[in-house]
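Supplementary Note 3. Input sequence used for the single-chain structure prediction.
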Amino acid sequence: MDTALLSASDLARRIRRGEVSAVDALEACLDRYERHNPAVNAVVVERREEARARAAAADEATKRGENWGPLHGVPVTIKDAFDWVGTPSTWGSPALANNFPEVDAVAVQRLLGAGAVIWGKTNVPLMLADWQSFNDVYGMTRNPWDLDRTPGGSSGGSAAALATGMSALEIGSDIGASIRNPAHYCGVFGLKPTWDLVPITGHLPPGDVGSIDIGVAGPLARSADDLDLALGVLAGPAGLDAAGYRADLAEPSQMRLSDFRVGLVLESPCVAQDQQLTDQLQNVADALAAAGVDVVEGARPDMDLRRAHEVYMLLLRAAMGAHATDEEMEAHREIAANSEPDDMSYDTLNSRGVTLSHRDWWQLDQERQKLRLAWANWFEAFDLLLCPTAASAAFPHIVDGTRGSRQIEINGMPELYTDQLFWAGWSCSVYLPAVSAPAGLTRDGLPVGLQIVAPHLQDRRAIRFAQLMERELGGYVPPPGYE
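The predicted structure, written as discrete structure tokens, is reproduced below.
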């Protein structure tokens, strides 16, 4: 296999053994960048000379018998919004085009501390707020499986870079499937960790220092093993909490697919879903059952799915609306005040969430806590829940209109693409870890991901299932033309 398509874990082993040099590994990725990035536009900032010097230093360290850590010499890229000294964190906004941080993000510090060779940053949508990745700073990122389609967002550049072999590992973020959705659209792996397990410090707009509700940082990769490797590097408290806490994630007890009892929910009344996607995920579920997994179709936590989605949408918009200007707040207040009580459209929920009082937010948080207990009770009988990552495979680029008005075709009918947030939010607002794992192709040849939801802080259980699934059914495959 092309060195640039090796998993980060395999590459790290080969570098450690002297079978591949860090310089050669980096050059393999840079060669892919030169050949494929003009069409895909995944990597938008590069520091190749600094990376070459670090890779050469890693090789010299290897010759001396030194090992910098589990990612020693491995070429890595990172999402635009992570602070990396010497590069701008633009968030896809022209207003932040000259936002050069003075301190590396905690996640970046930990990658470097583990020996990674970071060489570039990858593209995002404006303020990380879309399932497409285009902006007025760097332009549009395209899906390598079909350049006319989105790679997802907001970690769209991350997933496209991995799928094309420009990077061995990526670090992204997720508040509305921004890790899982691009992984699903591009045929790679993505982990949304338990909330606050991986520090978000250094992945915030200028001047912010605290965590944001629901939002997390986590890895994207070409293998499930890499998710576990990266989680071990990234997880654990930072800042004031580091004085008294540490992450001690339990190893999963399940060793074989037959050790798992899982619930399977492939459709929801909250969102129209592409039949090709549903059929492929059912095929995968059947194959897992044949491999020994105890699959209970329709088993899920006891809750009103529509209300759970409304709670997520309101809490999501409250979190993402925290930086609204005074003028934007006034416009949202007017929309919220003039809407009908039963209006649960995207734009109305957006305005209601942005303008929540603390009392209203607290009441919604109480609903969230009850939902968290419902999930915890359900997980007493089940190890995992399997469901779609999104309601369709990658859709064609749409640049006109607003998020709330854009439509995509589902089974020949136009549907609002914001409806797909259901599968993002079901586990997201309640802080649960979830992996999106490659699950084959639709009949039209587009990749799909199976979402694997685990109990609170059982991130490695979801990863273990993805590892076993990958070994049994296969995982990442290069897009045609990128082999």
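The longest strand covers residues 434-441. The longest helix spans residues 358-378.
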